[in-house]
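User: Sequence in, structure out. Go.
Assistant: Echoing your sequence, followed by the structure tokens.
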Amino acid sequence: MLKVVPGEAALIFKDGEDSTILVSDLHLGLEKEMAAKGFRIPPYSMKIMDRINSVAEKYAANRIVVLGDVKHSIGKVEDIDWSVLPWFFDTLLDVFASVEVVPGNHDGGIKTLLPSRVKLHQSSGTVLGSGEKVGVTHGHSWPSREVIACGRMVIGHSHFRYEMRDRFGSRTKEAVWLFAPYDKAELLRRAGAQQGEKGEGELIVMPPFNNLVGGQAINAKGGFDFGPVLSSGAVDVKDADIFLLDGTRV
């Protein structure tokens, strides 16, 4: 069973006695970039950890899988990464029996930052579950055949927002969930993978767990064209369901 955590950018996946939290786009270390722009904020990783702990306690979760963009720096490992990531994942290991990461486009060199007990998957993703299955990946690169073919796929990466205007012309952007059907055979073909699977799958695009990161408005021109899966033509974005974090359908 896969369900959205009300009011949070997180999913809970129940598989027998196991309960797994799925989150994406932590962007740990974003404070350094914001400081360079003149914004001073307390260490935001502690707020992220508190929110994860709250979800873990509520749903008795014993496993967490982070779907990429764990760190904010791209390419090289920054000094702030050494300050934040080892502490962050050591703390997660105190909370969860299993901690796993599917790397994203921001996660170059992340292996050196992770404790040895953290399982690091390939960027093409992995499949969770022994009965009902769900494929998970970050979304910046093509998922594996197994992830596409399992029929329910969860990605992050897009940082989707919905832009709203009030009667005075002021604009606000709210993080959103996106649920859309996809053609399994066509997506496998586009990915250059062995085919043989037919039927419709469901794509779930997660909002970023870090509330401070920006994002593009999906109700703007070209808003959906982000990453190989969404721009493949195999995902029916016209029939997508889009929800704010509070459950409001937009």
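User: And one key feature?
Assistant: The first strand starts at residue 2 and ends at 4.
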